[in-house]
Amino acid sequence: MTSFQPEAVPGQPPPPDSVRPRDSTAEAPTSVARLNETIRGFIQTWGSVWVEGEITAWNLRGGNVFGRLKDAGADATLSFRLWSSTRERLPQDLKVGDHVIVCLKADFFAKSGDFSFTVSAMRHVGLGDQLERLERLRAQLRSEGLFDPARKKSLPFLPHTIGLITGENSDAEKDVHRNAELRWPQVLFHTRHAAVQGDRCVPETIAALKALDADPEVDVIIIARGGGDPQTLLGFSDERLLRAVAAASTPVVSAIGHENDRPLLDEVADLRASTPTDAAKRVVPDVAEQRALVAQLRSRLTTRLTHRVTNDISQLEQLRSRPALRTPEALVQTRAHEIALLVDRGRARADRAIDVHARRTDELRASLRALSPASTLARGYAIAHLGDGVIVRDARQAPTGTAVVVTVAQGTFAARSEGEVDERTAPGRDPAETGGGAAEAPGTAN
Prior knowledge:
It contains 13 helices and 13 strands. The chain has helices at residues 32-44, 84-87, 127-143, 171-183, 201-214, 239-247, 265-268, 276-283, 287-320, 323-326, 328-371, 373-378, 431-434; strands spanning 48-61, 64-70, 77-82, 99-109, 114-124, 161-166, 188-193, 220-224, 252-255, 271-272, 383-385, 403-408, 411-416.
């Protein structure tokens, strides 16, 4: 049978009087204090031990933490205490769900018989290597322009249908539905469930993303999860998922809900929401706010129109009050006298001009009549024409037998020439004045 007698620890005082199983009997039992001291001395010989596990409880009391650590590969847990002085030296993002390595020291309180572990150090498992790989991927994607704000697509003002990728029956799904429907009751959802951690996370999320991106009814896609530790969020920093999101034609919203150590999906997505609830508020407008905005715009429009109409009416009244518009006939009456004077002046000037030109016309008519051949014919002269209309100016133009046409003051008649007549045989006749030789009408005697 194993003895409870602890061994002496170098550098420490020897353990108190301890008890061994053979030292106690029913007739001579040991005391509780002595048994507890024996257990305490035995436990103190363990020293510190490094343990790996998952934090399943993290209760803060007065600056100290009382928690539990679970073995990921077996159904085993232990309790631990973390004093505030030690907690100040640890990472501040430690929380439930983190996969950690802990340095524990066993403690047994002899007075109460309670057993527990005290934490002296704690850190995330493999976090340094993971962060280094993520930083290299971050730098690569940034150099390729996947983080560039210019390539990010803007969200529609009012999406008709929202594509949602989240865990089945998750709080994130409920939060998005509840808050979106509260803001805009008519909004529709096409939901695709996918694993949000583990090996299935990336392929299932990519498949859901491609299916929703190909759906013509989906206007925006939300990838939602209710937060988690960096280990469980690694899938949302996977290069395959990031490139699928960057290649999507539909705007994508990242709503992983983790403020510290944000996954790279937040950088590549077209919009980052801090939580699923925030995603619903960012994607869907509030119908009450929109109605209030419409009412405000209507009020401003009514005010401006009223002011504009009032101002125009005032200006119109001012214009109508001016003399020219108040009594418009006065302007006509004022100008009527001037117009009458101008008309009279124009009529007198026209009459004078007519008189002057009438006298001038009479003078020209008299001169024209004096020079007219008709006046000469009226005095008894005649004009003789040959058949071709040539005026006979020389008696030799009309030899004997020549037919001529004679024009007198009162008509024209035909004649035939009897030849040239001696001027001496025609007293009182001036052949030059008649413009032609003597003519005889047909059938007349010489």
